[in-house]
Amino acid sequence: MPTTPATTEAREPGTDAHEPAAATLPDLLDAQVRADPDAVAVRHGPAGITRRELARRARTLAAHLRARGTGPDDRVGLFAEPSAALVVGAWGILYASAAYLPLAPDYPDERLRYMATDAGLRIVVAQDDLVERLSDLVGPGTSIVPLSAWHDASPPDVPRHGPRPRDLAYVIYTSGSTGRPKGVMIEHRSIVSQLRWLRDTYRLDEAVILQKTPMSFDAAQWEILAPACGGTVVAGTPGLHRDPEAIIETIRRHGVTALQCVPTLLRALVDTDRLGACTTLRQIFTGGEALSTTLAADVLRAHPGTLVNLYGPTECTINSSAFTVDPATLDHAQQSVSIGRPVAGLRYVIVDTDDVPVTGDTVGELLIGGIQLARGYLHRPALTAQRFVPDPATGERLYRTGDLAARHHDGTVRFVGRVDNQVKLRGFRVELDEVRLAVEAHQWVRHAGMLVRDDRRTGHPHLLAFVELNPREAALMDQGRQEAHHRSKESRLQVRAQLSHVGVRTPEELAGRAALALPGAEPTEEQVRRVFARKTYRFYEGPPVTRADLLALLRPAAHGDLPARPLDQLDLATFGEILRYLGQFVSDERLLPKYGYASPGALNATQLYLEIHQLWGQPSGYYYHHPLTHELFLIGPATPQPEPTVRLHLVGRRRAIEPVYRNNIREVLEIETGHLVGLLEQVLPGYGLTVTAADHAPPTIRHLDCADDDLYLGSFTLTPYTPPPPDEIDVYVQVHPDRGVDLPPGQYLHRDGDLVRVDDALVLRQHVIAINQQVYDRAAIGISMVSTTPTRWRRYVDLGRALQRLSMNDLDFGFMSSGYSSDTGHDLPSAHRLRGILRRHGLPDGPSYFAVGGRVSPAQVAGRGMKEDVVHMKGPAELIRDDLAGRLPDYMLPNKVVIVDRMPLTANGKTDLTALAARVADDPGPQRPFVAPRTDLERRIARLWKEAVRQDEVSVHDDFFACGGNSLIAVALINRLNRVFGAALPMQVIFDSPTVAQLARRIAQRDQVSRSRLVPLARTREGRSVYCWPGLGGYPMNLRLLAGTVGRPFHGVQAYGVNPGEEPYRTISRMAAEDIRAIRERQPRGPYTLWGYSFGTRVAVEAAYQLEQAGEQVDQLVLIAPGSPRVRVSAGPATDGPASFASPTYLAVLCSVFAGTVSGPVIEECLATVVDEETFTGFVRRHFPALDLPLVRRITRVVARTYGLRHTEAELARRPVRAPVTVLRTRGDQESFLDTAVARRNLSPVVVDLAADHYAVLREPGVHQVVAALPARSRRRPVRPHVSITHLPIALTDEQHNRLVTAVTRAMTRAFGCDEDAVSIALEAVLEE
């Protein structure tokens, strides 16, 4: 191996007059005794041992060992906890000319037993109370010498000649590549050189050093041996190295000036926030692991002393190089701190894979030469020859470190990683330590460990990053009980909870209760605008915030001189419109529903009950407001009141909140209550109303038939409008630096219409939960609200009210809640921080709520997408990986980040990768094999999928979200799928069908459905589907509003002839037969729910008859507007005449199919200008340009073919129907076929007359008249069966699996009369019964 002139030359460390140049450790201690015998050498507790006393005790112990035949190069075990006795024991063995072998009591017994046997120990010096344990670890031929042997008062008889420089001083066992530790033999000359360097470079002769490092760790030796160079050792207590707080106390109590620890422990010391209190501490030495630049900067901020980064393999005697960190020149572009230059007496050589020295900053393996090299490995000559190699140019031994390093331009050396820690990933060689340092450079990460494991599906290696979060920088929700959901959103627990509406009362809970359908189920455009404007904003794209903006925002709302509305003037339509603000809002651009008020976790676990008296003809009672169906369900009677009354009772559903929150449940529910009430306070003045707090009456919940663990949250009364009283809330505004605000950064109190500066201190980034910290970085301001009300139940409610009102501003301010206090000791960090600021100034302190915000753009306010809601899809694990994607090339990016409670550590305080590997082995993850796309459709979908999630390969069974997908990516992917395949998949499809295979089936089914004529108009999963025939022309799109109001799955039965290439049928009987065939393809078995509108009632009756004749059950037949609308034209009766453009009646009816009316200017123009089909289609195109012209022609021909079709009385007489029939007649219609005596006899219908006319019944508010007139079971179906199956053997074939699922689904639909979509089945394989 050629040497290189670019290496640092070896040089001897300095000596002084008291010690010979070629000295041993006893020589050094004796010199210190001669120099100052009464100086303290060791402190332990209140007592101290002088240098003279240390030497005396050591010589006494040495005499005992000599008497037992101990001599040079003999290994003597040392088994003791950190203490003064441990220091005496080490020196006693050294004075006996032997080498001590540290046996740390916290090592596992098996390892200790192996070390004692491998080293051939004949004698072990042991702490007195550990002798019994040691007896079980060593063989019968090993003598145990208690450390109390130095108490022997007889004068020590120790020969004057001691050890020689090339004799062994100690043997340290380090981990071996074979899994067995190996003993490293260190000679006196090597450790003497190291101690002299420490003394000369860092003035160890003046230092007070804390000895707390486990003694089996090589770095502990200079702590133990520090008296040899004049230092004072403070002996720690057992386990001290694991207790950062105790270390701080020990430093302060004993005036420690020098401390060494591994970076892992150093991070823990910084996190105590008390390192700066160690005023005597001058030097901090760290080594054993790479020191990240981030940690170095944090240490120097916490304690501005001297920070020294040490590097050195055990084989080179503790430290082989050092680097003093200068905060002014710390290079944050580098992930780790330099390891510096070689110490005195050593030199570094960096070579390539051919053992040729490299030049410049090329990375290569580091070799070390010089006086500190170990003799070799005990009893391992072959390994010694392999690792300690001669330099052919000089003959000097060089030690192969196995470490990769490179030189900086200034001659210092950078540690890169381990030669044996390189792996091949994605065709590139990756150094795992480089990735680990990049992960640990993340602000949230305290410690990281990297593992490579083969993906069980593909066989490809996957890189896993395990991280322990730094709680000071990465606060999680539910402080103190950090459930897995708050670390990673991989499970999609919160999103699934939102989509399943766990807060809403179930159909089973409401079955059999009287229901009142509220008007206004379809939101107005103003409601949609206001609800979507009130978002949780996470981006602030508006103009800068000004002081004037803030004052305008905080100014109490001025509603002007609004008229007050007495409650007896509150009609049901207005009340329904008000309550619609509390319902769910949807958008094609969103994956999740939207509400008008903020809800922690968007779970909407707070539910509204209404106590109603003397209004709308309803009995006095307690009613449940269903936010999804827009109905009131009578829960139970209430004691009647003489005056019209509406009282709101708020109840929190624990079962809805607990999947996401385990702490602070009452607090978050009360905050949500405040947001809901705050929304009403903003909306109601426009109706001449408001809400005021009612008496707090927890017993009210007994009237509401709630679950036992539900929480009563408060009550409010709806009253005529009066100006609101002043809030009992203190509002603080914090101005963030460098965000363009025209106020100096700091904390301001809003008082008397002005902003009064309080403090420079801010609630900082690390004080908001981790997933919101990026939002904090974008925010210009923070708002802190502190409740001052003496009314206990109102404290958190008022906080929610305050933020809701601020959020519903018209100044384009947007906010995101970012923290709150707790009554149960689980404050989020923002509350801790704010409390400290307030108490410093003697300001009132109480429950608090914190939000960040800024100005938003008009486009954001108007937006109805998911941009602001991505937090629902990503937790800290996913966000860390996203950040790493911006720092690391793709081939180095971990496939997955896994957050652990605590990183497993070795006894030496380093990350225990073996334990991490065992954890992965215990949790093998998904067992499903990799299945490549099998069809052209799957391959096309997989290609779009891979582009969306940036994944190289995808199995058809991979879960979209487990592959890194989120809500924004989901929206983009579904939009692309719809565009590429001409589909109309809803956004929520990604939850029901999150794999390539399932999406392919959905798209294939879409093709089948499109050829079918069943048009899905409402996709809710509750209840059995309604099949409804539309009016004349057979086009079901005008049924959409009705479908959305019913609250059940709803399919329009499109007429044959509307699709291209179809020819309309000529009889109602044939129509019904073919339609039944399409329905039974979708739902093979009854019961069936059939509806018909206008002409469609005729087909519905025929279909019901044919189904019953086939042995099927029809559970409901609803016939809406069966009579024809009265057409008043100048020529002829309304029902006479052929389907001819020459017939005014026919032409008016035909035009009404598109216009939705049989009178008015459009009809008049049609009658005046249309003469044939061509002029009619031209007329429709002019008035309804959105309609497709070929479609208009096809519908026109369907109308022409079916216009005259109707049942004769004789046909009706032959068509009895057993199903319950409800006829809803509309105002102004002619009599229908159902008004005959034959129909009444054969159908026995319940007839209801509606106030809406023939066409208004399909529009607002007419659709609500339809729903209100229906039996409750037509609106909802409570049964959604779930079947759980445990099966043996372990695996089912695909065929077995499909047969089982099909059979169980068929059984459930027959038993419960539900759709297949309502059935859920769980299959679990077990190993044994």
UniProtKB/TrEMBL annotation:
Q: Which GO terms describe its molecular function?
A: oxidoreductase activity; phosphopantetheine binding
Q: Which GO terms describe its cellular component?
A: cytoplasm
Q: Which Pfam families match?
A: AMP-binding (PF00501), PP-binding (PF00550), Thioesterase (PF00975)
Per the UniProt entry, the signal peptide is none
Task: Name the domain of life this protein comes from.
Answer: Bacteria
Transmembrane domains' residue ranges: none
Which coenzymes or cofactors are required?
pantetheine 4'-phosphate
Recorded hits in InterPro entries, A to Z, give: AA_adenyl_dom, AB_hydrolase_fold, ACP-like_sf, AMP-bd_C_sf, AMP-binding, AMP-binding_CS, AMP-dep_synth/lig_dom, Nitroreductase-like
Coiled-coil spans in chain: none
State if Cytoplasm is listed as a keyword. no
Identify the residues that the record assigns to the Carrier domain, covering every copy: 932-1007
Q: Which PROSITE patterns match?
A: AMP_BINDING (PS00455), CARRIER (PS50075), PHOSPHOPANTETHEINE (PS00012)
Name any Gene Ontology BP term: monocarboxylic acid biosynthetic process
- Swiss-Prot/TrEMBL keywords: Phosphopantetheine, Phosphoprotein
Stretches with biased composition (Basic and acidic residues):
9-19
Residue numbers spanned by region Disordered: 1-20
The record's PANTHER family line, in alphabetical order, gives: FATTY ACID SYNTHASE, NONRIBOSOMAL PEPTIDE SYNTHETASE
Q: What name has this protein been given in UniProt? A: Amino acid adenylation domain-containing protein
Organism of this sequence: Micromonospora matsumotoense
Organism taxonomic ancestry: Bacteria, Bacillati, Actinomycetota, Actinomycetes, Micromonosporales
